[in-house]
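Narrative summary of target 7.
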Amino acid sequence: MRRRGKDLGEFLMVYRFGLEELLTKVNILREETTLRHGSSPIEHVSSRLKSIDSLVAKAERLGCALTSDALADSIFDIAGVRVVTSFVSDCYDVMEMLTSQPDVTVREVEDYIAEPKMNGYRSLHMLVEIPVFLSDRVVPACVEVQIRTVAMDFWASLEHKIYYKYDGAVPDSLRDELAEAADTASDLDQQMMRLHRKVHGTQH
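Modeled conformation, tokenized:
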């Protein structure tokens, strides 16, 4: 049991380093764009790393062996970064700035802004691979990246709280209101973008 804990701890260490590498990249972009343009498309950033207990629980649900190879091949949300932007166009700008870096390998992109989920969820999702340089080898670490606007983030936070309160069994009336609120948030994003263009004349 102790040996398994040590192995999983070392496995998660690589993901923690990959997460830190990606956060450094995001923070560099945030500071650079602020210095160059007086403001940044990045409003705020958060991150998360699964604990050993959470990782084991998910592996058991998936019927996944607790080996490094099996975990890496089956679980893709071990490490995650959420980037919240001002405008919809900023989501794509941030994605382009990150994915154009030579040591960032894009494994998957899911555009829930262009094609929202049935419940109204909107966000830009990426799975990227970051090289982690250890003392004796280079190990790739996958990090899930979510990029969304302030309005999208507010809606997603509320939706999560509602689903948690009802343990997933959300009444149909609330589901309908959530979907309507998602459309309202999307309309707000578009309106704010139009106002931004009128004030700054920026082409997005």
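DSSP finds six helices and five strands in the chain.
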